[in-house]
Protein 1
Amino acid sequence: MSRLPETARIRYHEEMQAARTTPDPATRWTHLERAHILSQPDPWLHTRNHVAMFALAVRQHDRREGFGQIVRIIVAAPGSLAGRYPEGNTGRARVGLRQTMPTPPDLDALLHPPA
């Protein structure tokens, strides 16, 4: 079962929709990165996010990013299931697989709502 709060899941879908509909490639990456931060606790959403990143890398003919996303597609679900994912990590190939990063405050509030 997913450990993702419902408000974070809703925002994940909003970020993925924004990534699909914006015409600017840099903005697409930003939305996919934000969706990645939110998706990490959920094996399915986490993997789905990396598939979308892979697709964008292919469209942009970015071999390095594409290869990095293939690796991440393979490890996304097991990492989520084991609870072993670096919080705040944006999911890009230029970022280490286990590198923690600061989580944007608005996303952190969704991932860690007050009890």
Note: Residues 86 and 100 are 5 Å apart (CA to CA).
Protein 2
Amino acid sequence: MVKLSEDMKEVYRKNMEKLFAVPMATTSADGVPNVAPMASVWLEDDETFWIGDNFMVKTLDNLKANPKVALYFWDPETKRCLQVKGDAEIKTKGPDYETARKRIKDAKPQMPAKSLIVIKITEVFECTPGKIAGQKLL
């Protein structure tokens, strides 16, 4: 798997500090795209994101049909942005799911915490405007 560098992790941290949400793109089995904001996003380790599912409908249907996802992180201070692609797995039981559910419930007890989306990073692309836009970094 692909591991994020320290500067990439900093883009993620700044995104979550300032913007509180990350756009996640999925596609249906028929190739229909969907983008939805994700607020419960954790960089679990250098190669794995966890996303808590509270209200996913189309996104969850898409993940069941096609586990490929893309996440977009933007640092509003430096204007640097990254596109992170990965393979998703849906978990509704087990220790990882219970850990994520507790995180969600501790922060906002009213949230349903229906499932955990585990994303293993496969590629990272630069999307900052300029000469490096679109460059594959990992």
Note: The mean pLDDT is 96.
Protein 3
Amino acid sequence: MSTDPKGLTQLGKPAAIPANPDEATLERVPNPHTGTLYLARFTAPEFTSICPVTGQPDFGVLVIDYAPKDWIVESKSLKLFLQSFRNHGAFHEDCTVGVAKRIVDAIAPTWLRIGGYWNARGGMPIDVFWQTGPALEGLWLPDQGIAPYRSRG
């Protein structure tokens, strides 16, 4: 993980999609507004992984909200990290919580929450939610914008 913007290994350079999440590098850059409580949101509307039992593809939307502290996530590295799940076999719960914990490990945010909204498989959608702790007083938390399951439409 790079801590100096000049040392970023992926931004502005050709970078292949990592073969799996363990090979992916999440990079960070200094928070330009340290000491200010604000929310940053990443939405991955086409998140994919592989069912570890059937080998079939799973599709979902990940919504990642975090309140930065000293660092912010470099978005290209996050995109490549998320794409590394494309051929990775894991259950929805593992993917969703695993993504959040990797971000927490990389940037140590003041607060983070993730919503994993998975498309139905076998007739049942699985939504997974995790956060680092209670929401912070004064932090604006907009709705994640994903409809409750009714064919997600």
Note: The CA atoms of residues 99 and 139 lie 22 Å apart.
